[in-house]
């Protein structure tokens, strides 16, 4: 009898281990865990341990499988094996990218562990979203985590809470909206309404926490989804297959059930850059981080639900870059910093001793981040002033650029209409120039 009980116990044990290998499982008795994140340009960046190495990943509801960048630089450290070469398509006008598909990798997010995670490792070392964000980003994680666990994203307090579905209990929330979501190619979609040219239009939108804009709409004249006459051409973002360009405009109203926004920013990507996204014929666009950050969200794939509760950011104005400049991190630069050493000196004056402080000037040679103009909107204030793509920014309004995080520099370009900007730049690695312009609301 004891042998039979022991055999049953072993079967149960190995059965649980096998089950755990095929999904994320929270390794504690509470069956829940909280992970802090950084909110960078409306994107959630979380720590993810891959085969024992801690990396930074964007938490992206818009991707079906994890993707790792700079694979060739990290391949030995990550010990990725069992690979096969293949192609991936995404946003952008370029050709498909080459990746290695790897199996049986160990992924750990907080105390949530999966033992046999598939991952796509990008071969092209130039494909990297980190320079645009100003922080190191090693990859993107989406569907595999969301399908296994209930994921709460608390944008206001900047933490993600992961909970086993069986342990999650819904609470009565009178100030929440609970919406049904549907799936296509392992990506979540929600129904919403937009008002354009006084016409209310029902739309189906991808929930895209990996997009920093508020709203993308795909132009469709038959439905009345058009940019109208008031818009400007702009860089919209960087996808797996290259840059994405299109129009920026505003719409009268956007609504998710009873939550509504007026005079909201919208981008209309050019059809040449979204061929892959248009494969789902029912899709009309996507909801991005600039809207999602205004809510604390609970995403429950098993029950096909998303719960939204507005937070302190709900009433923030929708703004846009009024300079026309997109900055990106461009390696490091050598900076000569002044350092003052303080020394005490005794001085004899008519038999009276007193002390003075003597400061000696020394220099430290240090490495600091370098920022360049990666994109420049045609006919924008910065473009008319004479700035060019590739110019390296060394100072903004008297502040040394290398002393500030990239996102803080970019935030200066979202200021009030008419604000003066003074840029000191280096062009071609030699020439130092100064340019002045004023921020300009492109919708006026």
Automatic annotation (TrEMBL):
InterPro entries: PDZ, PDZ_6, PDZ_sf, Peptidase_aspartic_dom_sf
GO molecular function: peptidase activity
Annotated GO biological process: proteolysis
Transmembrane feature ranges: none
Alphabetic keyword roster: Hydrolase, Protease
UniProt xrefs under Pfam families: Asp_protease_2, PDZ_6
Domain PDZ, chain residue ranges per copy: 331-429
Record bears the keyword Mitochondrion: no
Keyword Hydrolase part of the UniProt annotation: yes
The protein, known as: Aspartyl protease family protein
Naturally occurring in which organism (per UniProt): Snuella sedimenti
Source species taxonomy: Bacteria, Pseudomonadati, Bacteroidota, Flavobacteriia, Flavobacteriales
């Amino acid at each position: 009898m004891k042998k039979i009980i022991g055999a049953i116990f072993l079967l149960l044990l190995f059965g649980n281990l096998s089950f755990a290998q095929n999904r994320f499982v929270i390794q504690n008795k509470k069956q829940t865990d909280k992970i802090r994140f950084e909110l960078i340009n409306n994107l959630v960046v979380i720590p993810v341990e891959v085969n024992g190495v801690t990396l930074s990943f964007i938490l992206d509801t818009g991707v079906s499988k994890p993707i790792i960048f700079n694979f060739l630089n990290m391949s030995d450290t990550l010990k990725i094996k069992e690979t096969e070469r293949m192609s991936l398509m995404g946003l952008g006008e370029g050709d498909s990218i080459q990746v290695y598909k790897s199996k049986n990798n160990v992924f750990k997010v907080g105390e949530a562990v999966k033992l046999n995670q598939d991952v796509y490792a990008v071969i092209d070392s130039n494909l990297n979203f980190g320079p645009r964000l100003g922080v190191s980003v090693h990859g993107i994680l989406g569907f595999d985590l969301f399908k296994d666990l209930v994921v709460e994203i608390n944008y206001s307090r900047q933490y993600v809470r992961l909970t086993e579905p069986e342990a999650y209990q819904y609470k009565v929330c009178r100030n929440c909206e609970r919406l049904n979501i549907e799936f296509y190619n392992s990506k979540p979609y929600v129904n919403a309404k937009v008002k354009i040219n006084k016409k209310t239009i029902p739309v189906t939108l991808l929930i895209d926490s990996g997009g920093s804009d508020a709203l993308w709409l795909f132009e469709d004249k038959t439905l009345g989804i058009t940019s109208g006459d008031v818009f400007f051409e702009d860089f919209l973002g960087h996808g797996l297959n290259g840059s994405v360009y299109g129009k920026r405009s505003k719409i009268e109203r956007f609504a998710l059930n009873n939550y509504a926004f007026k005079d909201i920013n919208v981008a209309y990507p050019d059809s040449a850059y979204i061929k892959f996204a248009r494969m789902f014929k029912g899709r009309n666009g996507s909801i991005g981080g600039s809207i999602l950050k205004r809510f604390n969200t609970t995403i429950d794939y098993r029950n096909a639900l998303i719960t939204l509760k507005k937070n302190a950011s709900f009433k923030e104005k929708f703004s846009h870059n009024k300079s026309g400049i997109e900055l990106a991190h461009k390696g490091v630069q050598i900076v000569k910093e002044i350092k003052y050493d303080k020394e005490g000196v005794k001085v004899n004056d008519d038999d009276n001793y007193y002390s003075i402080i003597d400061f000696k000037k020394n220099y430290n040679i240090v490495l600091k981040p370098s920022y360049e103009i990666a994109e420049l909107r045609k006919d924008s204030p910065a473009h008319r002033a004479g700035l060019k793509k590739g110019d390296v920014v060394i100072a903004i309004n008297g502040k040394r650029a290398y002393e500030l995080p990239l996102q803080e520099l970019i935030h200066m370009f979202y200021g009030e209409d008419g604000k003066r900007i003074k840029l000191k730049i280096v062009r071609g690695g030699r020439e130092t120039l100064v340019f002045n312009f004023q921020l300009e609301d492109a919708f006026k």
